[in-house]
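User: I'm designing a mutation panel for Geranylgeranyl transferase type-2 subunit beta and want to avoid disrupting the core. Could you give me a predicted structure to guide residue selection? Please restate the sequence first so the numbering is unambiguous.

Assistant: Good idea. Sequence first, for numbering, then the predicted structure tokens:
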Amino acid sequence: MAFIVNDVDISAAEPKELLFDKHVEYIANHGNDQNDFEYCMTEFLRMSGIYWGVTALDLMQQLEKLDRKSIVEFIKKCQCPTSGGVAACEGHDPHMLYTLSAVQILCIYDCLDQIDVAGVARYVASLQQPDGSFFGDKWGEVDTRFSFCAVAILTLINKLDVINVPKAVEFVMSCCNADGGFGSKPNAESHAGLIYCCVGFLSITNQLHRLDCEKLAWWLCERQLPSGGLNGRPEKLPDVCYSWWVLASLTIMGRLHWISSDKLKVFILSCQDTDTGGFSDRTGNLPDIFHTLFGLGALSLLGHDKLLKVNPTFCMPQYVLDKLKINTQIISV
Ligand SMILES: [Zn+2]
């Protein structure tokens, strides 16, 4: 009996090389047209969109293609003077996700002092709950993604001591499942994106010894499909962003070599748009800025010679973390 595998056929897909210049152009022009349909539709995640573009261009050593001054001014306007949190764009409510994106951009631009850093720390601390978990914003949704955001933000601004770290670790470990993976809350299904958040969280807090690395790495390896692409959960289609979540987790656990790098590279390259530049989620689909960063990030983890080295925990260029003297725990086998 044959199993039916949900996968894509990339045998006829071009290109086989990185379309470097096309991607630079795609990202540099992204969001330039403020009347653009996509620009209007993505207002609610504008701050993260800028982080994806800034990071992608920095990995390609083309950061000067974006206007640093207007980006920093935009971030300043998005910080809420009362709570200290940062919103996706002016006039919206602050959220943990956009606060992390804003801090990441300012670290890349080496100008954290442009916002109220004490306010950011106060905002993150205010979202921690008695069980150690974090709300994403004042509306009170709990998710392990926000635990990752909290320790990532506070480490980047050097204020990790404003939260109860042991409690935060306890909560994340309560979301660990029997398959070695993690979900969004206790007893929630394992998912590669949340595994990345929890592994990243444990790498930042120096607690990687709590992982069952063998079991978890097996689960992650099983995400690779015959096309070479990776999915996020059993029976799902491959997707370029999972190349990042899975590969970064395996890298942190020192087990990148457990999957076929060559096949994954072919899959990621097949998701490039040969006309406009940019990467799509899977072969033949339309590109977007999110998948463009994670495609480039995964290629960097695989050692692509045209890209700067990316840090697997923070998804930022390694040189930025070196400059900030931030060391994240990585297992070497
Ligand atoms: Zn995706």
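For picking mutation sites, this is relevant: Strands lie at 310-311, 316-317. The domain at 20-324 is CATH 1.50.10.20 (Glycosyltransferase).
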